[in-house]
Amino acid sequence: MPRKTLKQRREKYPTENQFNRIRSVMDNLVGTEKVDDVMNELRNTLTGSGKVPSAGKYYVFVYNPKTPNIRYDQHPLVAVTEVFEWGFRGINYHWGEVRQYTWNEIIDQLYEIYPEELADARELPIKKFRLNS
After folding, report:
1. CATH code at 49?
2. Could you tell me if residue 20 is inside a domain?
3. What is the value of pTM for the model shown?
4. Is residue 1 situated within a structural domain?
5. With contact defined as beta carbons under 8 Å apart, do 115 and 58 qualify?
6. Which own/partner contact pairs does 54-59 have at CB distance under 8 Å and 24+ positions apart?
7. Where would you tag: which of 54, 69, 87, 122 has the fewest CB atoms within 10 A of its CB?
8. What confidence tens digit (pLDDT) does each residue in 25-78 have?
């Protein structure tokens, strides 16, 4: 069975808000873009919100962990569940599990995703799994 296009998959999760900032990134995809290029386009479309998230909100960011020999997602899409002095914990949608993020390893800043944009954000090809060596 052929895979559905991004447009077909997006129609399953319509956005009620006509001001969805991510929709323009989705609409410009042809399917041959590099992961880093899509992430940069997304970051250019959104407004940075610093490095400290709020529990209950969604964010994307660039992350490079300090722990050696760990497999990680360099472009996480996270639902933040807890904020601590050392960083935060949240559900990474690319992993499908809870992960921890420390402040100093966040490159640049966090970019908030609004709830009505989450379905589109989850469809973007931005996950980038790497091994920290």
Report:
1. 2.30.30
2. yes
3. 0.85
4. no
5. yes
6. 54/80, 54/83, 55/80, 55/81, 55/82, 55/83, 55/88, 56/80, 56/81, 57/112, 58/112, 58/113, 58/114, 58/115, 58/118, 58/121, 59/90, 59/110, 59/111, 59/112, 59/113
7. 69
8. 999 999 899 999 999 999 999 999 999 999 999 999 999 999 999 999 999 999
